[in-house]
Amino acid sequence: MLFVATGASFAEAQEPAPSSATPSPTSAPAPVGPNFEERLDEIDQRSRIALRKLEMAEEAAAAQAAKEKERAAKDKERANVKIGPSGLSISSADGAYSVALRAILQVDGRIFVNDEHKLTDAFIIRRARPIFDATMGKNFTVRIMPDFGGGQTVLQDAYIDARAANEFGVTVGKFKPTIGLERMQNEQATYFVERGYPSSIIPSRDVGIAIHGDLFEGKLGYSVGMYNGTLDGGAGGDIEFDDSKEFSAHVYVRPFATQARFTRPKFVSGLFIGVGATRGEKTGTPANTYLPVYRTSGQNTFFQYIADTSAGAPAGATTVAAGVENRLTGHIYAPIGPVAFLGEYVIEQERVARGTVSKLITLQAWNVTAAVALTGEDARFEGIVPKNPFDLTKGHVGAIELAARYSGMIIDRDAFGDFANDQRSARYAAEFGAGLNWYATRNYSVKGDYIITEFRSGGATAAGGRRDLEQVFLLRNQIAF
């Protein structure tokens, strides 16, 4: 009936409207006959065709929607592969799982000045580290990082970090104990080629467990750990042979960590202040003294305890660790626009013994560093990112940074005589350094330092003279991604 009605209406629309005037002899009703029915059939047929086309269009739209839905479902299952300044990474579509491959390569040069060829000028592979990171289910991360630099193979990092929330996480394995500021800074981000003297006293890495977290939206952070214990500046072994353990605690504040940018004072936006402490016990043997040597920025030893390793030497001829070892640290990092200030102080007390004599030895070390990005980039603890990466065709030179440092170490007078020889070891070492760093891109940089180190004692004379000044030019080529 619809088609009939529609056809009728259409027919009415096609017929001239009847005039209201008196019908003329020539006006007559539209004929109803075979032609009219044929037209109705034609209209009905066209309507059916139109309806079918509409049905087909709807079917096609539904099929397309089904394909889009299927494609979206497949996209959710498809892994994302990325390669860029942060290295190569593969992650699941929802980001819950990921693996990343990164690396650091540092090639250093050391040129000593006015040393009368007593010290060795050299080019070395300082660090060559592939880095494997993985995330498992967002709450669990893994890092494995060996180091093939320096003519040896060392497992630097191998840990699992489980973080239930920002306020609570647990790290297990081999990693950096978080008590030293410059030690926590990534190797590729340090202002100078070598770290200052406080990092010589703080363990580089150790095997253990640490609980950590950030409270009050990141304004307060903490870390408490228990480790096997290692010597000053050491990376620790992968296994342990004694029961003694070392405990550490670190607390820091970042008062402006989460404030909105428009209310955050820019000159203190990354302010970081912290204190840390360790307490442990170590008992050494002539074969494993658990005592370090301390080196200058030129990597020359300026202090070491007496060690008699000759055949038949009595057991008491070598100085060894003989009990408690405590450290206390304080540090501050303050970025002020393109200027960064880093300050750190460490004091350590360690009991040593040689033969029947035992004493508690105190060491102190400090580091005051200032740096400025001459090209205007904001100072960052993680390292400068050039505003305009190196590109001569565009007139871009990258980022240039100027740095200065005063750092040193004082060793207790009681260490000399019974435990150390003041003709071979210096009681005091302090360095003045200037550095010029060029960050061509986020990944490639060149650092150049000139370091002058002054000593007290260690002059290799019976009269106890001073060791000669050490002047060294350090150069580093670095790729990190």
TrEMBL record:
UniProt keyword list: Coiled coil
Low complexity bias locations: 8-25
Taxonomic superkingdom: Bacteria
Annotated region described as Disordered, given as residue ranges: 1-36
Any Pfam family the entry gives: Porin_O_P
Coiled coil ranges: 40-82
Tagged with keyword Coiled coil: yes
Alphabetical list of InterPro entries matching this protein: Porin_dom_sf, Porin_O/P
Name of the protein described by the UniProt record: OprO/OprP family phosphate-selective porin
Organism annotation: Pendulispora brunnea
